[in-house]
Design brief:
Length: 184
């Protein structure tokens, strides 16, 4: 069974639990999947049902598609600029380029962002609580509020944090900002 989707999924599920330092009993409580089933899943003895995967994804704060991407064997090592997806909110003054998208066993995602001068963007909550961010400001100035604490960044500064609550990004009226955001 080595190398099959089931075995790769089993290894990834075990690693997800270990990364959070949860016991099988703790995961069972969080997911409503029995401890015995979790053990058999992590050991690759059985293939997970859709229902079990949905419960585990909910416990881990992942979408099913993201979990399945994590177990893919192949991913393109080179992502050319013309193949990087760009999303622009011209009304808000925000441009986002996915430089390195999530893929297979790779945990990090790299996004290049640009904010026009005088922009304020606020988020009530993260898509996944506890997501690790490393924000490197390549140009300009940027004020970032994370979970109620504000940080003033200048070109070359790096802010590292895990996001659990609200966040806000502001540029001064006279200065746009460009930054790289690494999410793990």
């Amino acid at each position: 069974m080595e190398g099959t989707v089931t075995s790769r999924l089993a290894k990834r599920l075990k690693r997800l639990r270990q990364e959070r330092q949860w016991s099988l009993d703790q995961l069972s409580e969080r997911s409503s999947v029995s401890r015995a089933t979790l053990s058999r899943l992590e050991n690759g003895e059985v293939s997970p049902t859709t229902e079990a995967l949905a419960k585990l994804c909910s416990a881990y704060g992942l979408t099913l598609s993201r979990l399945l991407l994590m177990v893919e064997e192949e991913f393109p090592p080179l992502v050319r600029k013309q193949d990087q997806s760009i999303w622009e909110d011209s009304k808000a003054g925000f441009t986002r380029r996915v430089v390195s998208p999530p893929a297979g066993p790779l945990a990090a995602e790299v996004v290049a962002c640009e904010l026009k001068a005088g922009v304020r963007i606020a988020y009530e909550s993260p898509p996944v609580a506890g997501l690790e961010h490393h924000l490197y400001l390549t140009e300009g100035r940027l004020s970032i509020a994370v979970d109620g604490q504000t940080h003033e960044l200048s070109t070359g500064d790096c802010l590292r944090y895990q996001l659990y609550g609200a966040s806000e990004f502001r540029t001064p009226a006279d200065s746009p900002a460009k930054y790289l955001l690494v999410m793990v």
